Amino acid sequence: MELARAQQERWQRAYEQNPGLNGTDPSAAARWTVRLFGAAGIDDVLELGAGQGRDALYLARQGFSVHATDFSEAALSRLRLAAQRDGLDDRVTAALHDVRDPLPPADSTVGAVYANVVLNMAFSRAELRSLVTEIRRVLRPGGLFVYTVWSTDDSRYGNCSEIGDGLYANDGFACRFFDLDLVTDLADRWELGGADLYTEDDRVLWRVTQAKPAPAS
Ligand SMILES: C[S@@+](CC[C@H](N)C(=O)[O-])C[C@H]1O[C@@H](n2cnc3c(N)ncnc32)[C@H](O)[C@@H]1O
Where in the numbering of this chain does the Methyltransferase domain appear (predicted)? Predict the structure, then answer.
């Protein structure tokens, strides 16, 4: 609990001090994801850990309806202001939410869930498992979950100090590096569509796509 609170304060401070944190250009993952979601006929997206909204706003500009969540109110207020400024507030909503808590949507009501560089934050493996279970609960059958996380192939892996439970400290932020075993573990009871390594801003990441299985007919 202490780590969780400290992380929330760290992120809040980071966003208050740096209005440009993460930039405004969409991530590589968001550009890739709009094509996937578009081809799958998805029109609504729940984004977790959306930060100041570079990807939420991009998804909205591409025609998706986006509900963006984060546990930093500083980030979300900038996201809301940018949505209003860009005339996207009919397609983007934003709400404060800690992903350790149950997800607000009812069962099987969401078309897709998207989380860019969020699951590799300060979560225990048990918290990660319960988060993916929650995501599966809210998705409609056949719904898609796309996430990206730092990989153990990243050069920082092993170069920052370990703080226990497989977590590392990086400038006051706690983080985890994912190997294929963890990716596969989190895809248990899902259809794993793909797990691909890619590079962005000198980081090596996994991009993972998994689908909630449709019930057997
Ligand atoms: C590396 S940033 C990525 C932000 C955004 N997805 C992007 O790509 O610009 C990680 C984000 O996760 C959020 N976050 C970390 N832990 C969280 C938690 N427990 N619940 C909700 N959001 C969390 C942080 O506030 C931050 O906005």
Answer: 45-143
Helix (H) or strand (E) holding 57: helix 54-61
Please classify residue 153 by burial: count the beta carbons closer than 10 Å to its beta carbon, then call 0-12 exposed, 13-18 middle and 19+ buried.
middle
- Site to substitute for ligand 1 among 18, 70, 205, most atoms within 8 A of C-beta: 70
Its CATH architecture, for the domain 2-211, is 3-Layer(aba) Sandwich (3.40)
What is the C-alpha to C-alpha distance for residues 126 and 129, in angstroms, rounded to an integer? 5
Listed by start position, the domains of the chain span 2-211
**Amino acid (1-letter code) at residue 18:** N
End-to-end CA, the chain: 43
CA 59 to CA 55: how far, in whole Å? 6
Ligand 1 contacts CB of residue 10 (under 6 A) = no
Predicted confidence at residue 153, as pLDDT, reads 97
Task: From 77, 115, 118, select the one nearest 95 (Cα to Cα).
Answer: 77
Tens of pLDDT along 75-126?
A: 999 999 999 999 999 999 999 999 999 999 999 999 999 999 999 999 999 9
Mutate which of 25, 48, 97, 121 for ligand 1? The one with the most ligand atoms within 8 Å of its CB, which is 121
